[in-house]
Amino acid sequence: MAALIVSIMELIVGLLRKYRLVNIAASCLGLLIAFAAVHTALASFNRMREAQIRISCYNLLDLGYRLEKYAVDRDELLPPATNWCDALIKFNSYSSREMRKGRVKNDEGLSEFAFNSNLSELKLAEVPKDMVLIFETQLAKNPAGGKELINPENHPLKGCFVLFGDMHVEFVRAEDFNNLRWKP
Which of 51, 120, 136, 168 has its CB 3.0 to 4.6 Å from that of 81, i.e. a possible disulfide? Predict the structure, then answer.
């Protein structure tokens, strides 16, 4: 009888140990599933952010190309800062949606890119290679101005993309905005 009780006790202890292992295994599995879900969400967020970065860069490069085409047809002059977006849209049949970093909005004629107002009707060949030409800003109609219009909140790294006079695009952090060249 004692052997039977010992045997039952061993069986109960064994089941409790197994039950504890099952709990540990279930907890680990739950953690793995949670980690996989978070990882998938972060990967998706990163892909979305990378796509937004590519769109910003592409649109800035495209704006630079269109500015060059505009200047070639206008004795090398850049458009006036007061209506630069409208001038490009009329000249190139350019969609204003492309001036909004690929976001679909119903606001026609608005842009999230600003033109350096110091370049208004200047000859393109006179623009220094290291000078800001176009940069990211808040959505507005024909935005033009200087560093006061830069919007560093578009990106997690607190900065914005800038198109320079030599038509290259670069990400500039907020703390480096004062180092940018704004005047010829």
Answer: 120
